[in-house]
Design a protein that fits this description.
With 483 residues, this protein is α/β, with parallel strands linked by helices. The chain folds into three domains: 249 residues, Aspartate Aminotransferase, domain 2 (3-Layer(aba) Sandwich); 117 residues, Aspartate Aminotransferase, domain 1, CATH 3.90.1150; 67 residues, no CATH class. 42% of the residues lie in helices and 14% in strands. The two termini are 23 Å apart. The structure holds pyridoxal-5'-phosphate.
């Protein structure tokens, strides 16, 4: 047995560190080891339970009720707000869309008329909504943002009509850290009879304690559902999020129930059937332990981190914070007003920081449907634990910026031209073997957690999206192919 666990320990040694604040994406460390121990103990107690059936395992219902109650209070929901615990942000977003689609269909009799509902989202809405539109057959209507990553309420409102089943706003949007204009969009949605989902998967357990954030939650008229992830700023292990609805009728539309088979009657509030109770138990324990005051303290710490990093970036020539973020995410971009010789390319910066043991996340530049470009950026998820390392991170940021200032961004044009010369494009994507050959050609076939990514991201920016998606699919799929 120890041999097996030793091997896992060795494997884990190659992972990016999950604790200590050196990875500013993916992981959310409160910096309180006692919380992790509590979560582990609770997860272990609940491990054998199947959360499929809370009538057989009533502990599941009690924990779920208490977690939902806590989040509902934090988001200023009244008694009419009800919901479910899901397996993560993507599942919460998928269910928000599925629910709105089903209600839209019921209200519009769409199957008879053949109308297809629309999902209205700003360009910075999480990709989970693209997945939802594909899975649940809605037309995705993407509203372009300004180059600073903010969306104008009037641009969203201008596209509202009776075919929109759901409009989505984010609190905040992951790529930019911007808080969408929730009050204006939700009010207009209500006037049009359209449901409005606030995707607070990222900020839902920070913004309630971010003292001067504008109202974005159930206090806002017209907001009909909110998602908030416990496995992000709820500091729980992965596998737990909350989706809250205004009104029982809307919540019940989320369920799948059938008695039309010879087995046990199936009633699933979420997408999964059998599911682990461990993530729920872990997050329940953390919520009990932290309470309102614990979350307030951790948020205050994140806020000090945000202020410190923003003031450091303000002093770095050639680098700026994108737009005006509210909450725990920042995106860094090259200062567009600086001379090229002074600019700090955010992807070169991210690679240089990785060499120094700090990870921030590459986000490729993105050309929107109207032709406007959102600049390439580097995302930072700010966590409480980083406060202890803030001095070290600020120094690393300055040194890394100095090291790459004036270096031109990686250029993916030659490789993209080679890919196109082979006949690949939006209408002809490479299959697995060809995609793998192209990845090798691009020097991107080796995936270790600390390799430079500026080149791959530049290629992603240049290639038609279907080709880039095929290459990245291949990259990931090969990783877990049995050898
Ligand atoms: C705003 C937002 N929505 C949805 C998601 C998807 O969450 P998950 O990765 O838990 O599925 C994320 C993840 O970062 C997010 O930031």
């Amino acid at each position: 047995m120890t041999g097996i666990l030793d091997r896992l320990r060795n494997l884990r040694a190659a992972d990016a560190p999950t604790h200590g604040g050196r990875v500013l994406a993916y992981v959310y460390d409160a910096g309180v080891p006692e919380l992790d121990e509590l979560a582990d103990a609770a997860a272990s107690l609940a491990r054998p339970v199947n959360a499929l059936d809370p009538t057989v395992f009533p502990s599941v219902a009690v924990m779920e009720r208490e977690v939902l109650g806590f989040v509902r209070r934090a988001l200023h929901g009244r008694r009419d707000v009800v919901g479910s615990v899901t397996s993560g942000g993507t599942e919460s977003c998928l269910l928000a869309v599925k629910t709105a689609r089903d209600l839209w269909r019921a209200e519009h009799g769409s199957t008879a008329s053949g109308r297809r509902p629309r999902l209205l989202v700003p360009a910075t809405a999480h990709a989970a909504f693209q997945k939802a539109a594909r899975l649940f057959d809605l037309e995705l209507d993407t509203v372009p943002c300004r180059p600073d990553g903010a969306v104008a309420a009037e641009d969203v409102i201008a596209r509202m009509d009776g075919d929109v089943a759901l409009v989505v706003v984010s609190a905040p949007a992951y790529p930019s850290g911007a808080l969408d204009p929730i009050r204006a969009v939700a009010a207009a949605a209500q006037a049009h009879g359209i449901r409005c989902h606030v995707d607070a998967c990222f900020g839902g357990l920070v913004l309630p304690w971010w003292t001067d954030a504008p109202a974005w939650d159930f206090r806002v008229t017209g907001v009909t559902s909110i998602s908030a992830d416990l496995h992000k700023y709820g500091y729980a292990p992965k596998g737990v999020s909350v989706l809250l609805h205004r009104g029982r009728r809307q919540h019940r539309a989320q369920f799948f129930a059938t008695t039309r088979w010879p087995g046990y009657p199936v009633v699933n509030p979420t997408l999964l059937g059998s599911k682990s109770a461990s993530p729920l138990a872990a997050s329940w324990a953390i919520v009990q332990r932290l309470g309102d005051s614990g979350f307030a303290e951790l948020t205050a710490s994140i806020r000090r981190v945000a202020t410190g990093i923003r003031s450091e970036v303000d002093g770095i020539p050639g680098l700026v914070v994108l737009g005006d973020p509210v909450g725990p995410a920042l995106a860094l971009i090259a200062d567009p007003t600086a001379m090229p010789a002074l600019r700090v390319d955010p992807h070169r910066l991210a690679d240089e920081l990785a060499r120094r043991g700090w990870r921030i996340q590459h986000q490729p530049g993105f050309v929107q449907a109207d032709g406007t470009r959102l600049p390439r950026s580097a995302h930072l998820t700010l966590t409480p634990v980083l406060e202890r390392e803030l001095g070290g991170f600020r120094r690393a940021l300055v040194q890394a910026a100095d090291a790459v200032r004036g270096r031109p961004p990686a250029d993916g044009r030659a490789l993209a031209a080679a890919v196109r010369a082979l006949g690949y494009g939006a209408r002809r994507v490479p299959g697995p073997a060809a995609a793998w050959r192209l990845l090798r050609l691009a020097g991107a076939a080796r995936a270790t957690s600390d390799r430079p990514l500026a080149g791959l991201m530049a290629l992603v920016e240049e290639l038609p999206a279907p080709v880039a998606e095929a290459l990245l699919t291949e990259l990931l799929a090969r990783l877990s192919e049995p050898r």
